[in-house]
Amino acid sequence: MCGIVAYYGPNNAYEYLIKGLRRLEYRGYDSAGIALLNGDLNIYKNKGKVSELEALAEGNNLEGNRGIGHTRWATHGEPNTVNAHPHQSQSGNIALIHNGIIENYATIKKVLIQRGHEFQSDTDTEVLTHLIEEIQDKEQVDLLEAVRLALNEVVGAYAIVILSKNDPNTLIAARKGSPLVVGIGREEGEFFLASDATPIIEYTNRVTYIDDNEIVAIQDGEMSVKTIDNVVKSPFIQELEISLDSLEKGGYEHFMLKEIFEQPKSIYDSMRGRFDAENLTFSMRSLEEYASKIKNLDRIIIIACGTSWHAGLVGEYLIEEFSRIPVEVEYASEFRYRNPIITEDDLVIAISQSGETADTLAAIEMAKEKGAKRAILLPVSAPFHCALMAPAAEIMAQALADVTILSPAVPVIANVSAKPVSDPNEIRQLLVAQVTGAVRWRETVSWLGAHGVTDVWEIGAGKALSGMVRRIERSIACRAVSTPEDVTSAVQNLEES
């Protein structure tokens, strides 16, 4: 996943950009770059790590209180310095960073070449940058209007941020399909933009999430929002409840070790408020109004990519065993490009570690178009993916899925597979219990009680068996517990200790 960070305000942008790019390194990338606006556009980019970008920029002009930064995961063109972001327009006056894919870029590029444009890279992003300048020059409009008109010409997904040397008091951003969040700084006229909240939370917790087909203009220290259809919108500003400590190593040697030891908390949080140990029942409020619609299913289709797909394979075993409903697990990037048979009696469950997986979201949309009347989006709240986790329940559920069930996982920075696998399966087991009224949870609780695991803690309105988590954590450290044999072994270890 590519990463975006930008700064507009009274201070020097460079430190904010570099620190922000470091915060986004968990997303994976092959190159990095920044653009600083201070009378001229100074662009520094290279293949490799953010630390290498810092070394490249050292000793150069790093002044400027407007700036954009990017970490790229190659899609169009090989990973190299030329293809790294930011990209410039034909004249060099506009710099742009971009997450996503412009699907009709080849057609647009052909037309622009016929009009005399010369391209330096193999990317779709450079084509969009040239298109914006072409429209601005041809139509004699300002940068905001040029961006709006250009976005009406492109097909695909994008989150973009743009600077122009000819309009130094303006920063433009827009999104469709790829997340983008704007942070309102503590100083007057200060704004932070990013692909998720991790680079922002250190400086402000007041943010607004940009919806699909919206454009943000920051001009002369003021922010305005409109759609690509030129409809003015009022931005909704909210406060994030995020701790900066959760983004730090917390005394561990590295993030991977921290996240392994966070597994018990992650599972606990997935159960919290949903498990009533006194009555041995499970309940998910997000499904209360929808519960009747997920009865009498003929089939369940799970769609996902990567680690989430592996979680889906585990879910297939659990759901079929407990509910006796046939389950198919599909890779979203393949599912969306074929012609699947979907009926009104099918339930589609989409899993996304980030909540922003483009193929998975497109697969949900396609499933709905093919006749699916019931769709559930199951995002795992990995590294706060705040830029989407807050809108996921709002944007995704409204536009794509019928229900969004968030897994309140602790942040994932190392990007190991543990929590993205365990958390959705905890949620999925709760879903099975809600759908089928399965009584195996009662048997499980009784079995654990018979083995001496009886401690409880408060979880919302009910109680859960915290002793199990604490004792297993102590007795087997971080060894995986994934089968009945593992559980039996763990309990035996507890009894011996």
Task: Kindly describe this structure.
- This protein is of the alpha+beta class and 497 residues long.
- It folds into two domains: 3-242, 4-Layer Sandwich (Glutamine Phosphoribosylpyrophosphate, subunit 1, domain 1); 250-496, Glucose-6-phosphate isomerase like protein, domain 1 (Rossmann fold), CATH 3.40.50.
- Helices cover 35% and strands 24% of the residues.
- The chain has 15 helices and 24 strands.
- It has helices at 13-23, 50-57, 105-114, 124-139, 143-151, 255-261, 263-271, 306-323, 332-335, 358-369, 386-399, 418-436, 440-450, 466-476, 484-496; strands at residues 3-8, 31-38, 40-47, 66-72, 87-88, 94-102, 156-164, 170-176, 181-184, 191-194, 206-209, 214-219, 222-227, 232-233, 238-239, 275-276, 281-282, 299-304, 327-331, 346-352, 374-379, 403-404, 457-459, 462-464.
- The strands form five sheets. It has an eight-stranded antiparallel β-sheet with strand order 3-2-4-1-10-9-11-15, with helices on one face. The chain has a seven-stranded antiparallel β-sheet with strand order 5-6-7-8-12-13-14.
- The protein is globular.
